[in-house]
Amino acid sequence: MKKTELLLPAGNMEKLKVVLHYGADAVYLGGNLFNLRALADNFSKEKLEEAVKYTHSLGKKVYVTLNIIPHNKELELMPEYVKFLEKIKVDGVIVADLGVFRIVKQNTNLNISISTQANNTNWQSVQMWKELGAKRVILARELSLQEIKEIREKVPDIELEAFIHGAMCMAISGRCLLSNYMTGRDANRGTCAQPCRWNYSLMEEKRPGEFFPVFEDENGTHIFNSKDLCAINFINEVLDIGLDSVKIEGRMKGIYYAAVVGKVYREAIDNYYSGNHRYNPKWLEELETTSHRKFTSGFYYGGKGEGMQNYDERNSYSQSHILVAKVLEKVGENEYILGIRNKLKSGEKVEVLNAKNKIVEFEFPEMIDQKNQEIINEANPNTTVEIKIETNLESLDLIRKRK
Which uninterrupted H or E stretch holds 100? Predict the structure, then answer.
């Protein structure tokens, strides 16, 4: 049986290495042009080439996002850019717009995935993209499991991809103008200000200064904001359909989120293909250690209405753990160099997150500050320290603590 690809986001080179280490079969990322995460670090041409070489050295794949909805002037540089992507041997590009699709087809032989921004919600549109020459269609998030199954049956000879975890947009397939209207930043060209995440209250025009709750909060609410998609407890039903790829959202998220989500879904997918799939409640517990909004099954079971998609609490984000350090290298017997990410004190109880083994808890030891070569008992973010412990660590292991 062909295994479904696990596709994870890579907002920069560090995140790319982390997600590949923690289980991704492939990554998607953006260059400095033509992608919908203009505010992410993104990749210069030199970094793109480095990313492709590194990923291919592990036998894995790289997809580059070209998913903006462009205006005329933005098309001028695209022919040269897509030729460059072909030259460095990316495994495919992600496209939302017919004009961009045409430019890629005219200038390269690159594999093309049709972005979720293209809003493919039925088998006829998927069939049309196949006939035009697309390799893969990334389905709209607004589809149920039954609808996806029907598309798979009607169009068996094209690759299909679907999102299984991460933030969802309040607008269908992300086609939103709130940011344009309120800030002048175009969501469909990569600079969304996310005004749907802001706090709002309702005021009646003849009662100025009197604010009314939209749902339950006495001060207002996030009236547009959606919950986060999480498919971990029914991942077997998603995989039963025979999708070619399942995708995690989050190019703007940090390495801790990327590592945990990658590790959990890697384990769940491998569990499924072992032939003896059984849901493990620990998977959800691990996902809840990352920064997230309330989880929802999205539209997979046909769920509609605010109870399924929107939350009604002002404090929308929660997480149980924070990242405190990343293992940079092993320098001796049980001696390691760590990059500190959040304040950390000797004596605190911490946990090691690695790609394969069980999570190990230990008491954090005293440290040697790499800058001053002094023994310290407290380290601040963006510093480098050396520690010696009995616990076996590997490069790219992450160390976390409870909040």
Answer: helix 98-107
Q: Are residues 273 and 368 in the same domain?
A: no
Residue 279 lies in a domain: yes
Please check whether residues 304 and 356 belong to one and the same domain. no
Boundaries of domain holding 130: 5-172+225-309
In whole angstroms, give the CA distance from residue 313 to residue 53: 45
Q: Model pTM? A: 0.86
As a whole number, mean pLDDT of residues 76-92 equals 95
Q: What count of other Cβ atoms lies within 10 Å of the Cβ of residue 318?
A: 13
**pLDDT tens profile 111-142:** 999 999 999 999 999 999 999 999 999 999 98
Give domain status of residue 214, yes or no.
no
Mean pLDDT across the chain = 87
Q: Tens digits of per-residue pLDDT, 343-375?
A: 999 999 999 999 987 888 999 999 999 998 999
Are 117 and 44 in the same domain?
yes
- Residue range 187-219, pLDDT digits in tens: 665 667 666 666 666 677 777 777 665 554 444
Of 39, 34, 24, residue with least CA distance to 84: 34
Upper half-sphere CA count for residue 133 (Cβ side, 13 Å): 15
Per DSSP, the residues of 254-312 read -HHHHHHHHHHHHHHHHHHHTT-----HHHHHHHTTSSB--EE-TTTT---SHHHHB--
CATH number for position 392 = 2.40.30.10
pLDDT above 70: percentage of residues in the chain: 83
Report the 10 Å Cβ neighbour count for 293: 21
Instruction: For residues 233 and 296, state if they share a domain.
Output: yes
